[in-house]
Amino acid sequence: MGMQINAIEIKNLSKSFRGMYAVDHLNMTVPRGAIYGFIGENGSGKSTTEKLICGHLVPDAGEIKLFGKDYTDPGVRIRVGALIENAGCFPNSSVYQNLRMQTINLGLKNPDEEIKRVLEIVRMSENAHLKFKNCSLGMKQRIGIAMALLGDPALLILDEPINGLDTDGMRIMREILIDITQKYGCTVLISSHILGELEKIATHYGIIRQGKMIMELSAEEMDNRSQVFISLKTKDMNGAKAALKRKYNTVTEEDEYIRIYDIDNTAEIVDFLMKNGHIISEIKKNKIGLEEYYIELMSQKGEE
Amino acid sequence: MTRKEELTFESPTFAKRIKGMLGVDFYRLFHTPLFYIFLAIAAIIPAMVSAMTMMPDQSGDTMEPLYSNVWQIIAASEALYVIRTIGDYANMNMVFIFGGIMVSIFIGHDYKSGYVKQLFTTHAKKQDYMISKSLVCAFAMACMCITYFIGGTVGGLLAGYETDVKIGSLIIAVLGKMIMSLGWASLYTFLNVIFRKYFGISIASSFFFGTGILIIGAAAIVESLFLPTGFLNIFLYGSSVNACLTSNIGTLIVCIVVSVAWTVFYNFLGTKILSKSDVY
Question: ipTM score here?
């Protein structure tokens, strides 16, 4: 059995604009079959990295390998689909015509079947006749994904595909992305600001700051790092907090709730407070999510 | 259809890549109104110029038609590098101005819509892009030469001009200009690649070169020095002017050589520039 080849392997990648590094000696590894959530602030270098991988920008230095091959190899490029910034469609052409052009470009043998297949995946079968310019933002994003899915890609690169979508649009997009990876086995690199949504689908994360990769971890590792805490409200918040502090190490008050960290047994807390004469009006078990973890990590890095 | 099996990566050949690119460009050409609008422009303008334009005579007292012969709107009676009247200038070479604008819009749409990203994300190489755009736009301009011929002929006939012409020279002149479309299309593709971030400059530069003003100016200097002007045929505008109503087979050969040489030059240069610069 051969060694597992990563879908993307980047070493020391750099790209500067007017002397400023947008991507600064970046290293990145995306395992095959992963949904890789690429996280970073605005201007951190996410989109630039994606554009470099797609061959839209010429790197200053570094190495990009896709499935073990140089990223410029036409053989590997033909298996890459991307949605970067916009769908890349002609506004006055219909959805069908735009997809048809890409099937011609890729030299696909059964274009109509292929178009039907990708439109079904993105739930757009009924809208093939629409002019692209008349589609809603959510539809345009889905058409962009349909374009990227033509020709059985092994790697999909999606830049902020859920930006600007409403709740329903986000749900549809999430279902589509899960479909793509589960049914078609694509590796997906996806950047997004909406970390709550990303958390629901990503199997791996890469966190970028000022053009540098500051952390790469799997969803499992992220789960292990996530802190559990119980939050509650009582009539006498100060008294309850003082009582809890006598027994538990980390007790804080945030957003009008008392938080007790490193414990997930709510019954124990209820029992303790009742014995101390406090009546609980609200109690729940929580877990620090990706968003809070990311904010904390960024504030730590900012202080360094 | 899960992909747990070994992935295979088969490199598409140059022929397959270029077939794909040409296919896309021709599909776009035939499925958008741009091409048909320019075909119509190429037909209507010579018809109007030929049938309706009047110029003052030498005394300036009376107005007379711009031409006396139907075919003067197609090509000049001889290779006139320096123009003295509007009639010397207004012939099928105008297609290269219309063509320049059309190429700018055609390539501009690639960048404005973001479609160029789809092309370069997948297997397309910069060289394929240059070749495909040059060939498709040359085809479009050659088609415009045909509609120009039809429009100009109809306009001249309606105006009642005489029809005397050496048929062989006329055919060579039209064929020569159609062949020159390839060189012109390559120049415009190159200009639009250089100025891809600035649509206004792209269109203005295409128009500027399309007018042939540089060669007209150079020819005026050469003529004032009493030097032969034949060497101007090594340029696109020179060869286009040289395809006139006194053309012979040699003219056609010059057109082929000049057009192909400039095509190779602009495609090579454009590919180099695209390869070393960002798509955006």
Answer: 0.85
